[in-house]
């Protein structure tokens, strides 16, 4: 099949009806257009070089590559999540540089390119997701792939100074330049990416705003990701009607939902809730914080450290403020089912999103979509989350300022209904503008509009030989 959409992401759903924002969007886009979805097999240790394994076929096909245990450690936990993730989230103090991690990262990308190239026709659209695959387009070009290739970075674009922490800092711009379209979450990320190219003597800006890098031209644009708004709102309504969400949660429930990641600002959030509790008069109604924080990447030291820190703070605050019939902080260190989560959002008077750095933050959007528009709760949102760029009617906070966050909790819980409704209406409009289907359509349309890559040096050699490539900003050849 030619002219199809080919999506590559680290995770790939294995069930017939996938759930979760990105997964639903990609699934819907592929159902419309047909095509392929390629990702890492959920089980490690299968054959790594035998081609891609088909894991589902319906209106489109899902194919998986296997990672060995060593590749998972070095490529996924190592270079992806102990170098690229901290660099992009401004935590260069947590970067762990190991030569073998970088080598495996490059080798996995080379192998995925080789497996993928056999499935790509010239008029396909290839959409690659996230920091696990930064060098993938470069490897595909080396194999002679001429299709349009787009990249979407789900996490913040790194600050220029943080890029110097990479073992080979010059690679980053070169990797990106092999794509035709680089999509980022926010205008701030786009500005950072363009700043990187401006500082690079290999790059030149074209009159139409595209970037010429050596002999390639690429476009850089923001595509704020969203959620499936109507589906999420319906799930929240259904939970409110049907389920017993625990009457002892109290009326003044404040919710937080995050993978247990150091970028989410959880210790400061707990400290702010502690400051709020400390400032509370004895006659004030009680409020509780419900924090759902499923574990993630637990074999990386920084993730084990954040868990220990958080348990210590939660234990101390509960020891200080709890009474026989009230536990101020409920901390759940495992995932809860998605529909229940939607109902808990709707039940909560406020939601705390306190990221120190965050590409977008879908929890902020889910919370707003889940509210009863007639009597909505209040979103308290870090200025450092991408979501804050458009959700300006949330209570925006500096997650480094404990007092400001404690005050924001008081303000949210005391906010008059009219103000809550007005803020919610404005936030919901912003959430609807970035509905995940709109996001996917915009990206694919923009990628389709990119001029095609023209090869010099004859047709591509799919066996892995290096070919020179060039791209001219010329009108599309029909
Ligand atoms: C990356 C970027 C960007 C969490 N706990 C449970 C649960 N979740 C779900 C939430 C939400 C998702 O996980 C988390 O999404 P976020 O956007 O908040 O954060 P990351 O995982 O870091 O995602 C981020 C995103 O990619 C998309 O581009 O926004 O900036 O870092 O959907 O609901 N879901 C269930 N149970 C849980 O316990 N069912």
Question: Which shape, going by the Cα principal axes?
Answer: globular
Domain module tally = 2
CATH topology of the largest domain: Rossmann fold
CATH-level-2 architecture of the largest domain: 3-Layer(aba) Sandwich
Task: Give a quick precis of the structure.
This protein is of the alpha/beta class. It is built from 15 helices and 16 strands.
Describe the structure.
This protein is of the alpha/beta class and 478 residues long. The two termini are 18 Å apart. Strands 3-4-2-1-5-6-7-10-9-8 form a ten-stranded mixed β-sheet, sandwiched between helices. It has helices at residues 21-33, 69-88, 99-117, 136-142, 160-163, 171-177, 187-198, 229-242, 266-278, 301-321, 338-347, 362-370, 402-414, 417-433, 436-448; strands spanning 5-8, 35-40, 53-57, 61-65, 125-129, 148-152, 181-184, 203-205, 211-213, 216-222, 253-257, 288-292, 329-332, 350-353, 378-382, 395-397. It contains 15 helices and 16 strands. GDP-alpha-D-glucose is lined by residues 21-22, 154-155, 225, 257, 259, 292, 294, 335-336, 338, 341, 358-363, 366. GDP-alpha-D-glucose (GDG) binds next to α1, α11 and α12.
Secondary-structure topology with pairs:
Layout lengths: L4 E4 L12 H13 L1 E6 L12 E5 L3 E5 L3 H20 L10 H19 L7 E5 L6 H7 L5 E5 L7 H4 L7 H7 L3 E4 L2 H12 L4 E3 L5 E3 L2 E7 L6 H14 L10 E5 L8 H13 L9 E5 L8 H21 L7 E4 L5 H10 L2 E4 L8 H9 L7 E5 L12 E3 L4 H13 L2 H17 L2 H13 L30
Parallel strand pairs: 1-2, 1-5, 2-4, 5-6, 6-7, 7-10, 11-12, 11-14, 12-13, 14-15, 15-16
Antiparallel strand pairs: 3-4, 8-9, 9-10
This protein binds GDP-alpha-D-glucose.
Organism: Roseivivax jejudonensis
EC number: 2.4.1.15
GO molecular function: alpha,alpha-trehalose-phosphate synthase (UDP-forming) activity
